[in-house]
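Let's practice the habit of predicting before peeking. Look at the sequence and jot down your guess about where helices and strands might fall. Then scroll down.
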Amino acid sequence: MKLDDLKHAQRERLIFLDRCLTWRGMANRKDLIDHFGISTAQAALDFRVYLGLAHSSPPTYDPVRKTYIAASEHEALAPSGLTEAFDILAGVDEDTPSSALPRPERKADQRTIAFLHQAIRSGNAVHVRYTSMSSGADEGQWIAPTRFTSDGESVHLRAHSFKRGEYRNYLPIRIDPDSSFEEKPIDKPLPEDVDWNTRAIIWLRPKTGLSDEQAKVVRREFGFEGEWLRVETRKALEFFFDRRWGLDTVGARLERAKTDYEPI
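Done guessing? Here is the structure:
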């Protein structure tokens, strides 16, 4: 039996159990009971299934602490990053403020998103009014939406701007929901979106000026396997990459060593 063979609900419980053992180094039935509200019998069954799956490096039961302790050579069944496992470490205490900062919730008009999606599916141009943070509000323009993209925090729209004669990234929330959203067929093929069809291979290194010890920590933090860290994205998303990774911010820990481009 494999983890993927289990039904969704039990698979989620075993992934939680696996993360407890991976990041806490211990787990017991109470963890499952408190987190999922299941019975003691079900928690015991989940543990038996987990032990069967983790046969190569199973945890051992400590009768004094009444908990399972991860093996020194523990191998996660479902590898996860520390951010994914944060809730495992933080715990839940409803009487105090959260130990995690609130994330900004980016609103979106559902009707606007639906119009844009329909334009993508139909291959038509759509008329919208857009407010830019650099040039302000326009009187309306025709765009040809091609796809939605994400920078990990916000959803963006990739579209050809007939006004600018180029492909651009738009934030749907900045499209006026009272736009006409009139559609029209595109009378000739759109130009190739060269930036979208170009892979950007970004080579990162610790920021110049860090001490040897600081650079060593940065390499460990970001999982360097050599002198530089290789990250791939599309050329069209490079701007978002730099911002998300904080490359141009005060106190940045990473910088570009070089960037290679190749067609996709």
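How did you do? The chain has a mean pLDDT of 93.
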